[in-house]
Amino acid sequence: MSVPESFAEDLWIRGAFGIAGYTFIVWDYLLTLEDEFKYIWKAPWTVSKATFLVNRYGNLACQTFIRVEEVGLLSHGSQMWCHRFNIFTTLYMLIATESIHILVLMRAWAIWGCTRRVAAWLISIYVTYLFLQLGMTIFGTGSKNFQMFQYLEDIGVCVGVMPQYVWVIFLASFVLDTTVFALTMRSLHKYSRICRRLYPSQLLHRLFKDALIFFLVSTFNNFFIIILWTVYAKRPQYFLAVTFSLPLLSMAGQRLVLNLRGLQARSYTTGELSREVDRQILAFEQGAGANDLYAPPVLWREEDPDDELEAVEADVEMVEIRIQQGSDGGAVVEGAVLETPQEAHIR
C-alpha cells in the first residue's frame, strides 16, 4: 500500500476512538431505556419530548451508519460518494448539536421565569448564533479542501481535510454555553438563598448538579473540536468531533432531560406538613402580602411589574396529602408531596 505509516496510525486512532464513542452512546441508551419509556413515552407530546427523541434516535441511527462506513464497506473508492457522506455528517453534527442547545435553552427559559421578554432575548441570541453556524457551515462545505479525500482507493474510508476557520463555530458555541450557564447559576443561587428558609428542594439540587455537569461536558466538546479542527485539520483525527465528542455531548443533554423528568417530589413528615399548611392558611387569610414574609412571590427571577398575575399564582403551592385508614378506624396522615408551579413547569 502507498499509505504512509503515520497516516495509517492516525487512522487506527480514529477508528479506536470512534468505537469508544459508539459504545458509550449504545451503553447509555441501554441503561436509560427504562427511564425513557417511563418518563418520556408516557408523557404528553411537547417540543421538549420531540427534540429529545430526535436527538436520541437520530444519534443512534447516524452513528451506526458512520461505523459501517468506517470499516470501508460503503465508499468503494468513489469520490462522489465520500463528498455526499461529508455533507451528511455535517448536517448530522449540526442537528445533533443544536437539538441539545434547544433543550438547554428551554430549560434556562423555565428557570428564568417563562416570560415573553426572556424568551425574546434568548431567541435573539440563539438566532444570531445560528446564522453564524449556518454561514460557517456553508463556507466549509463549499471549500475545495472539503471535497478532497486522502488515499481513498487504498483505505476505502472517506478521510477529508477540514477547511480553515470552521472551528470558529465552536468558539461561538462556547460563548453561548458559558453565558447561559452563568445566568442560570445566578438565578439558582438567588432562589436557593430565599428557599432555604422554607424547605430543601431536590429539584434545586438536581438543577445545580446537572447544569454544572452539562457545562463541563459542553466545554470539553467545544475545545476538543477546536483542537481537532486546527491541529489535526489535515489528519484523520479531525473526524473524532463526530464519532467521539458528539456522542458525549448528546448523552449529557439526554441525561439532563431524563434526570428532571425522573425526579420524584419530596415526601414531608407530619411536622413539616403542619408548618407548611399553617403558612398557606396564613397566606389565604391575610392575602398575598402575608406570604411574602416566608417565600418570594416569584421564585425564578427578579420582580417584574409586567408579571403581577404570575407572582400571585406562584404564592400558592400545591399540596397533596396522602391519607389512609388507620387500624382504629381513624385517618392517619403519612406525609405530603410539595411542588411549586415553577418546579412543575421545569420538569
Give the SSE map.
Layout: H1 5-41, H2 47-70, H3 79-111, H4 116-141, H5 152-155, H6 168-195, H7 202-231, H8 240-262, E1 267-268, H9 270-286, H10 288-291, H11 308-314, E2 318-325, E3 331-339, H12 341-346
Antiparallel strand pairs: 1-3, 2-3
Descriptors for this entry?
3 strands, single chain, 12 helices, 69% helix, three-stranded antiparallel sheet, elongated, mainly alpha, Rhopdopsin 7-helix transmembrane proteins, 347 residues, 2 domains
Structural account:
The protein is mainly α and 347 residues long. The chain has two domains: 5-262, Rhopdopsin 7-helix transmembrane proteins (Up-down Bundle); 267-346, no CATH class. 69% of the residues lie in helices and 5% in strands. It has helices at residues 5-41, 47-70, 79-111, 116-141, 152-155, 168-195, 202-231, 240-262, 270-286, 288-291, 308-314, 341-346, and strands at residues 267-268, 318-325, 331-339. The model is unreliable at 287-341 (pLDDT under 50).
% residues in beta strands: 5-15%
CATH architecture title of the largest domain: Up-down Bundle
Mean model confidence by pLDDT: 77
- Residues in helices, as a percent range: 55-70%
Q: What is the CATH domain class of the largest domain?
A: Mainly Alpha
Q: Any idea how many domains?
A: 2
Largest sheet: 3 strands, antiparallel
First CA to last CA: what distance? 56 Å
**Strand tally, please?**
3
| Low-pLDDT regions | 287-341
Main structural class: mainly alpha
CATH third-level topology of the largest domain:
Rhopdopsin 7-helix transmembrane proteins
The helix/strand order is HHHHHHHHEHHHEEH
The order of strands across the largest sheet is 1-3-2
Number of helices: 12
- Shape descriptor: elongated
